[in-house]
Amino acid sequence: MDIQQLLNTPPRRLPSEIPETPAPIPFSQLTTQSWDSQNGPRPPIPFSQLTTQSWDSQNGPRPLTPFSQLTTQSWDSRNGPRPSRESLLVPVNSQNNLSQTPSRKKGPYDPTLTRSDRIRIKTALDFNISPERIWKKYGYSLSQIQRTKYSRLTPQVHRRGRKYLIGSPTCRELANWVEESPSRRYVTFKHIPYIAPPRFALQDRKEQAIRTAFKLVGYGRRVAPKKGFSDDPMVMRERVEFAEERKTWTPQRLFNQIFSDEVWAMGGAYTRAWVTVKEDGSDRFDPACIKYK
Fold first, then answer.
1. Are the C-beta atoms of 222 and 284 separated by less than 8 Å?
2. In sequence order, which ranges of 71-196 are alpha helices (DSSP H)?
3. What is d(CA 211, CA 190) in angstroms, rounded to the nearest whole number?
4. 82 has pLDDT over 70
5. Per-residue pLDDT reduced to its tens digit, 168-183
6. 27 Cβ partners below 8 Å, 6+ apart?
7. By the 8 A CB rule, do 34 and 25 touch?
8. What's the pLDDT score for residue 175?
9. What is the C-alpha end-to-end distance of the chain, expressed in Å?
10. How far apart are CA 65 and CA 73, in angstroms?
11. Phi and psi at residue 83, to the nearest 5°
12. Nearest 5 degrees, angle CA 29-CA 31-CA 33?
């Protein structure tokens, strides 16, 4: 036989040789019919793989087994006794409690110190009493005692930002100057620097600075209320006599008469008047702040 023919001839398998191991079947093709009965009984499938290996993926996704059809046969006895159905049902309230994040319980805070408490702490420290003894006696925390030691009895509030151009004493004197004369209440803020005394030094101050100065002492600009008709009995009787006497006038004669409420047509003031009054309204109806008709 030719050597080339011998090399091309496949080798023959002897009966005594061990058969080759078959190729593994893909996981998606594993079914109950894929086991050869010649290999013996089918080994039991572990409980953890029952839901994945006992269903052919070619048939689509595995349907969910109803809870009413679950039996003890699908439970592996090696995992212990099967839990009861009642234990698997979780109440709605407990589900809401599980979904919520447990709130962190805050501890008690130290009480706020009053001025009397600070005086008590400072007095005890002046007599060389240790903070530990003060803490045991009064219950103040050590941090509160330490802060009180280097702070004032009354907390100080330091204002930030730009300082006022007109000081508080000048603001008070300016308010007293306005109250001295009723005519000064009608002067606008922008005109006050021109008529105020030189001792106030307001020549270079603008309207906003004057407005802020009056606001610091509780003053502002309001519309002057108008005084209505007089309630004097004599004046009321005169008005009635005037009406009785002239009720027979013709319309032409009535149109030629000038009444007191039409005085603005003769050149008088016909706009609203503004006055400087207190913002709390205590002098709102003061005679000096009322505009008469």
1. yes
2. 85-88, 92-99, 115-126, 131-138, 142-149, 168-179, 192-195
3. 9
4. no
5. 899 999 999 999 999 9
6. 53
7. yes
8. 93
9. 147
10. 13
11. -70, 150
12. 120
